[in-house]
């Protein structure tokens, strides 16, 4: 169930292997050009429904932190998170995994949950529109493929 803004990539590795990389949120900074990783909080030791993570992000000289909550966590099938900043909804990110003959197809998708007010207030963090998000997803999937295929 990908969101409307989505990018897919074939990766020559099993879905379970790639899923483990994606669900290891402290390592997300290795794949994402904007996310810098972070840490599990509120007693969470790893991914699972309801687990909470503090994410650190960077866009140029701008830096900010987010609260990430795992929404769906099905090994080798799906991994979905919702992102907030304080009381404000930001986005949902989802990864779907489909086994293929040569490995798997990974679809990363994004649902912008920001209100108009939050979009205006967050503008100093950079333009986070569809074009920006698609380029970030393509880069993330490329980096993920390099890691999974090595």
CATH superfamily: START domain
Shape, principal axes of CA atoms: globular
Classify the fold: give the CATH topology.
Alpha-D-Glucose-1,6-Bisphosphate, Chain A, domain 4
Strand content: 35-45%
- Helical fraction equals 10-25%
Q: Low-confidence stretches at least 5 residues in length (pLDDT < 50)? A: none
CATH class: Alpha Beta
Please outline the major beta sheet.
Answer: 7 strands, antiparallel
Second rung of CATH, namely the architecture = 2-Layer Sandwich
Structural class comes to alpha+beta
Supply the number of helical segments: 3
Number of strands: 7
Distance between the termini: 28 Å
Q: What is the H/E order? A: EHEEEEEEHH
Mean pLDDT equals 91
Spatial ordering of strands, largest sheet: 1-7-6-5-4-3-2
Question: Care to describe what's here?
Answer:
- By secondary structure, the chain is of the alpha+beta class.
- It has one domain: Alpha-D-Glucose-1,6-Bisphosphate, Chain A, domain 4 (2-Layer Sandwich), CATH 3.30.530.
- Helices cover 24% and strands 44% of the residues.
- It is built from three helices and seven strands; from the N terminus they run E-H-E-E-E-E-E-E-H-H.
- It has helices spanning 15-23, 116-122, 130-149, and strands spanning 5-11, 35-41, 52-59, 62-74, 78-85, 88-100, 103-112.
- The chain has a seven-stranded antiparallel beta sheet, with helices on one face.
- A hairpin with a 2-residue loop joins strand 5 (78-85) and strand 6.
- The chain is globular and about 45 Å long.
- The two termini are 28 Å apart.
- The relative contact order is 0.25.
- The model has no long low-confidence stretch (mean pLDDT 91).
